Amino acid sequence: MDKNPQSRNYLNCSTCEKDLPANVRARWNCGFLTPKKRVGPGFPSPAGWEADKDICPGYIIQLPQVIEVARARVHWNKGLLRERYEGEELTGVLLDGLELLEGYVQDLEIQISNEGNK
């Protein structure tokens, strides 16, 4: 269930940069702004989420490292992570990222399940 149908717009940096004024992006701590131009308090998190973030999550989800971990998770869940990297050494950063992502996905699944039971 999409609790905020506009999330596809404001979590899309190109749309956000085009549609939102710089002062709003500065309050959301847009990662495309220099740290000096970010005024916070951060991206407005919905009720029940953790505290506002230091950097807008729309920016974070576009980082190459985040995309790589998300893509690697598909192979990890099938037991094919080594095949995905064709013999390359698996880095601690990749494995740490996979563990963190898996934990967050499990937390989200529990939350969705609990909401469905209410």
Provide structural commentary.
By secondary structure, this protein is an all-alpha fold. The chain has two domains: 1-60, no CATH class; 63-118, no CATH class. It has seven helices and no strands. The longest helix is centred in the C-terminal third of the chain and has 26 residues, at 92-117. It is globular and about 45 Å long. The two termini are 14 Å apart.
Secondary-structure map with pairings?
Layout: H1 7-10, H2 13-19, H3 22-27, H4 57-60, H5 64-77, H6 81-84, H7 92-117
Helix pairs in contact: 5-7
- Can you summarize the main beta sheet? none
Count the strands? 0
* Residue runs with pLDDT of under 50 for 5 or more positions: none
- Rounded mean pLDDT is 85
Number of domains: 2
User: Strand-residue fraction?
Assistant: under 5%
- Gross morphology: globular
The structure class reads: mainly alpha
- In DSSP terms (H or I, runs of 4 or more residues), the helix count works out at 7
How far apart the termini lie comes to 14 Å
What sequence of helices (H) and strands (E) makes up the elements?
Answer: HHHHHHH
Rg, Å, rounded: 17 Å
How helix-rich are the residues, as a percent range?
Answer: 55-70%
Features:
118 residues; mainly alpha; 2 domains; 0% strand
In brief, what are we looking at here?
By secondary structure, this protein is an all-alpha fold. Helices cover 55% and strands 0% of the residues. It has two domains: 1-60, no CATH class; 63-118, no CATH class.
